[in-house]
Write a structure and sequence with these properties.
With about 170 residues, the protein is mostly beta strands. The chain contains no helices and 10 strands.
Length: about 170
């Protein structure tokens, strides 16, 4: 039995209610040439989308949404910089959730590959939101990571098993 405290919280707060995962398997690569500076869904070359449909069990819960992945960029021209940003998108409300934009890497030195390892940059973006953040109560909503590329070169994304996880955590109303 949960204990209610004077501040309105409960000993049941903070318990994991449910966890859901979705991913694109490794070695799926989607190419974006001469990036148009637009947000793109994380989709593999076979049109597999890294997205999750999630139905909260309680409108008063908190949702921890974590998306991870990797992009890779190439250019044969020196001094062509590149940049990629990532966000979590809530298709139910039509808005980004959590941090709007996170820089995931850039290079302005030119060459053939950019990023942290073999021309690849790993990324993680996290959102911690109310389960009812989009006024849908306990209705199903759909989340996916989106990437934004800038630069005159070739980007590869959905590179190494991109993944999104939603954890529902109990919280008092």
């Amino acid at each position: 039995m949960a204990i209610k405290y004077s501040d309105g919280s409960s000993s049941a707060d903070g318990r994991i209610i449910q966890i859901a995962n979705a991913q694109i398997a490794g070695n799926n690569i989607r190419t974006q040439n001469n990036a148009p500076n637009a947000w793109k869904k994380v989709v593999s070359n076979t049109d597999e989308i890294c997205q999750i449909s999630f139905t909260p069990k309680s409108a008063t819960s908190k949702l921890l949404i974590v998306a991870t992945g990797m992009w890779h960029g190439t250019s044969n021209t020196k001094s062509h910089g590149m940049e990629a940003k990532v966000r979590i998108y809530d298709n139910t409300s039509g808005n980004a959730v959590g941090p709007e934009v996170i820089d995931t890497g850039s290079s302005y030195t030119g060459g053939n590959s950019y990023g942290d390892y073999w021309g690849a940059a790993e990324w993680t973006v996290t959102a911690f939101v109310e389960a009812d953040h989009n006024s849908n109560g306990t209705n199903t909503r759909v989340y996916w990571p989106e990437l934004w590329f800038d630069g005159n070169q070739t980007f590869y994304y959905a590179y190494a098993g991109d993944r999104i996880t939603v954890t529902e955590i109990s919280a008092s109303s």
